[in-house]
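To: structure desk
From: M.T.
Subject: fold request, one chain
Message: Could you run this one when you get a chance? Sequence is below, nothing fancy, just the single chain.
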Amino acid sequence: MLYTNEANPQVIVTVDSLPALCVSLACDYTYINPTGIITGQSVSGNTVTVDGTSLPTDNITDIIAGTDCTVISISDT
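Reply: Done. Structure tokens follow.
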């Protein structure tokens, strides 16, 4: 295994055995440490509740089965 001291390693992507071209020729990604954990979920009628710890509270988009959902309330848990 090779090791490089890079924050943005390069990725080579293929689709159907053809090389994919990345936007602006920058096929890199950044390592991040996950902060939130989903610990459970429940459904009651049309209400879905997701429980967890350190969940994000801004820029949230909920989509279930391809349908945009309305967020009624939100917290980091």
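Reply (cont.): The beta strands are 14-15, 18-19, 37-44, 47-53, 62-64, 67-69. Let me know if you need anything else for the meeting.
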